[in-house]
Amino acid sequence: MKTLEIRKFLEATALLLGGLLALPLYAQEIKELNLYSARHYQTDEALYSDFTKKTGIKINRIEADDNALAERLKSEGANSPADVILMVDAARLWRAQIDGFFKPIQSKYLESRIPENLRSKSEPEGLTWFGFSTRARLVVYNKAKVNPLDVDTYEKLAEPINKGKVCTRSGAHPYMLSLIGAMIERRGEKATEEWAKGMVVNMARPPRGGDTDQIKAVASGECGVALTNSYYLVRLLRSTKPEDQAIVSKIGFVWPNQKTTGVHINVAGGGVAKNAPHSQAAIQFLEYLASDSAQEYFANGNNEWPVVKSVKIENEGLKILGPYKAENISIAAIGKNQIAAQRLLDRVGYK
Ligand code: FE
Questions:
Q1: Rounded to the nearest whole angstrom, what is the distance from the C-alpha of residue 10 to the centroid of ligand 1?
Q2: Torsional sign, CA 166, 168, 172, 176
Q3: How far does residue 175's CA lie from ligand 1's centre (Å)?
Q4: For residue 302, how far is its CA from the centre of ligand 1 (angstroms)?
Q5: pLDDT (tens digit, 9 = 90+) per residue, 26-76?
Q6: What is the distance in A from the centroid of ligand 1 to the CA of 174?
Q7: d(C-alpha 226, C-alpha 142), whole Å
Q8: Is the pLDDT confidence value at 231 over 70?
Q9: How many angstroms separate the alpha carbon of residue 209 from the centre of ligand 1?
Q10: Are 351 and 209 in contact (CB under 8 A)?
Q11: Nearest-CA neighbor of 304 among 336, 347, 263, 267?
Q12: If you measure from the C-alpha of residue 5 to the centroid of ligand 1, how many angstroms do you get, rounded to a whole number?
């Protein structure tokens, strides 16, 4: 009887001691966050260190481009240490959602801060990914060759007046798939296919290169008009390099569809990873990204606009671009339409 009591006492003590010993370990465990990010901007250092300062949570970063991150997440599967995934463009974010990379979450704060059309959800589980900054898809034209009034809508680029003048990057790139996905949402598949057909007829050259290459080709006169994400243009506008200033002197830009549906808007954003070992810290990090100070860093890092409307940033490049009317459709619907967009491009031979 006595032996049993002593044993019980020893067991209880061991349990208690074990619990005490385990405490600091547990505390250590929740004090870090594994971030898989397709971002790589200088201002991000301040963004991350500010979060660590505020919460004591250390951020371990894996940086790679969107495709490499997706490959990595696929191969790691359920064992992935990822807590938060950051990517750019609705097309990629939506694909990541379909690939099952995100864990749906609940957050009243994120719901209140981020406009409904700039986030995605999976019913009934919860919110899957969020836009944290926006970029616009602009028209750039050669001032000597093109009248801006002939290129002030996406629709006009496909009209006969622009025959032999139009350049874009590959139609299969997420930036193009999202633009076309948005058009499908606004105008339907049939009208969008007609537009894509007109674009193919009007091309100055087969699609190649990135957005900056399109701007350069417009400056050189090889193309009369092209499409680019706003931050590539801002980067050139802000550049002090003589070769960049030479490019800028030859081009003009237009905010398309200002009298109608508004310019196509996309996002950089992210969500909590499916098997996040630190999912509480992950939600905390996303909520931090929607805070006033983080919104400034996040958007400024790549010359983009904050998604939280009350946040104003001082950015000379964005000031040059001026105010604009934005398209007001669901970014999740745009992402979803990319499959229909790709099919329609294949049908009309848009490479
Ligand atoms: Fe980009």
A1: 62
A2: negative
A3: 8
A4: 9
A5: 444 559 999 999 998 888 999 999 999 999 999 999 999 999 999 999 999
A6: 10
A7: 9
A8: yes
A9: 12
A10: no
A11: 267
A12: 69
Rounded to whole angstroms, the Cα distance separating 315 from 325 reads: 19
Centre of ligand 1 to C-alpha 256, Å, is 19
pLDDT of residue 42: 84
C-alpha 147 – ligand 1 centre gap (Å) = 27
Contact 239, 194 (CB under 8 A): no
Residue 20 has pLDDT above 50, yes or no: no
Token pair for residue 16?
A: 């208690």
Ligand 1 centre to CA of 57 (Å) is 29
| pTM (global) more than 0.70 | yes
Using one digit for the tens of pLDDT, what is the confidence trace for 285-308?
Answer: 999 999 999 999 999 999 999 999
3 — pLDDT class (breaks 50, 70, 90)? low
Residues 305 and 231: their CA atoms lie apart, in Å, by: 10
Domains and CATH numbers, the chain: 30-134+265-312 (3.40.190.10), 136-264+324-348 (3.40.190.10)
